[in-house]
């Protein structure tokens, strides 16, 4: 047996409680011809949508038209799946809200078959703060503490992605591994803190020389990786030589010049991320053997 708590004030009190909910409860109906409308909309969030509920009761389009462009097809696909498989829908999208800018909204809804299509019962909640917090945590877990560039984890994820794209589309992809020469000597002479400062500055110089779609990552210690999508080896080598020159000519505030050695490999179709790293690494050792302060590319 189920029991319901009856509040003093009955239905009026229930309506007031719903109006104060920080969100929206709704029914969304989709007819067989694909038309969407909200037969029921309530909650404190309704007025923030900025469209009269009576209008949305006729047609959901004025609200859907407000969605951030790329979120519209995603939401429609989620509803479509929910309808087809009769499973709950759980998704998020961005919607500009009255006086609040673009907000992230979570949608949870349960479909039930209706005479003329499907009827969802669901809720909408503003989750912008959570989304911002998730992004902050993701950034933290992907970032090298000392230099602020990507860490090894992020590098491996991006590299796997780039390698798989390159395998599929035969697009060029180059990887540089850069290592600061005689870094131990810098620490020993100037102290660990000055060593840290050099690492930060090298990371900054690398980043300044790359394009938006490239990635600089600290592999660990005094070793960095530079991932260059859509870049053939020849261009990567020119870039690496410029980078060697820029670093050797930069004033790091220590008495002798800081130099770097760089190994370069271009992805070969069918090759995995680890093989590509190994080939670039191999060239790095060759550059060190060859006298340092230079870049060498794989044959
Ligand atoms: N300051 C600082 N030093 C680090 C950090 N991580 C690693 N190191 C130091 O980097 C040095 C690396 O030394 P080695 O691997 O001998 O290489 P190297 O002196 O650069 O010599 P080559 O690479 O052969 O030119 C070690 O002394 C490590 O202690 C860090 O986060 N900060």
TrEMBL record:
- GO biological process: what's one of them? cell adhesion involved in single-species biofilm formation
What molecular functions are annotated in GO for this chain?
A: diguanylate cyclase activity
Q: What is its EC number?
A: 2.7.7.65
InterPro entries to which the protein is assigned, alphabetical: Diguanylate_Cyclase, GGDEF_dom, Nucleotide_cyclase, PAS, PAS-like_dom_sf, PAS_fold_3, Rev_trsase/Diguanyl_cyclase
Reaction it catalyzes: 2 GTP = 3',3'-c-di-GMP + 2 diphosphate
Xref: Pfam families: GGDEF, PAS_3
The coenzyme or cofactor needed here is:
Mg(2+)
Q: Which NCBIfam families match?
A: GGDEF
Q: What is this protein called?
A: diguanylate cyclase
Give the originating organism.
Halomonas shengliensis
């Amino acid at each position: 047996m189920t029991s319901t708590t009856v509040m003093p004030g009955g239905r009026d009190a229930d309506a007031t409680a719903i109006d104060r909910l920080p969100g929206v409860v709704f029914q969304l109906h989709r007819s067989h011809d694909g038309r969407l409308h909200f037969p029921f909309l309530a909650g404190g969030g309704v007025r923030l949508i900025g469209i009269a509920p009576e209008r949305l009761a006729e047609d959901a389009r004025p609200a859907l038209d407000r969605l951030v462009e790329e979120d519209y097809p995603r939401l429609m696909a989620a509803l479509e799946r929910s309808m087809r498989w009769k499973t709950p829908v759980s998704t998020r999208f961005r919607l500009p809200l009255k006086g609040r800018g673009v907000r992230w909204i979570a949608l949870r809804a349960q479909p039930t078959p209706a005479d003329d299509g499907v009827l969802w019962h669901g809720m909408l909640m503003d989750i912008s703060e959570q989304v911002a917090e998730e992004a902050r945590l993701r950034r933290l877990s992907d970032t090298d503490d000392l230099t602020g560039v990507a860490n090894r984890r992020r590098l491996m994820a991006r590299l796997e992605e780039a390698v798989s794209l390159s395998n599929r589309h035969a697009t060029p992809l180059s990887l540089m591994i850069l290592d600061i020469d005689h870094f131990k000597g810098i620490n020993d002479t100037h102290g660990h803190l000055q060593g840290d400062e050099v690492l930060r500055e090298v990371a900054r110089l690398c980043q300044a020389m790359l394009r938006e779609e490239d990635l600089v990552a600290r592999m660990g210690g005094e070793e960095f990786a530079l991932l260059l999508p859509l870049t053939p080896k020849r261009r990567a080598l020119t870039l690496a030589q410029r980078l060697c020159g820029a670093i050797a000519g930069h004033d790091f505030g220590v008495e002798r010049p800081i130099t770097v050695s760089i190994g370069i490999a271009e992805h070969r179709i069918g090759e995995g991320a680890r093989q590509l790293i190994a080939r670039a690494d191999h060239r790095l050792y060759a550059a060190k053997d060859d006298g340092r302060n230079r870049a060498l590319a794989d044959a």
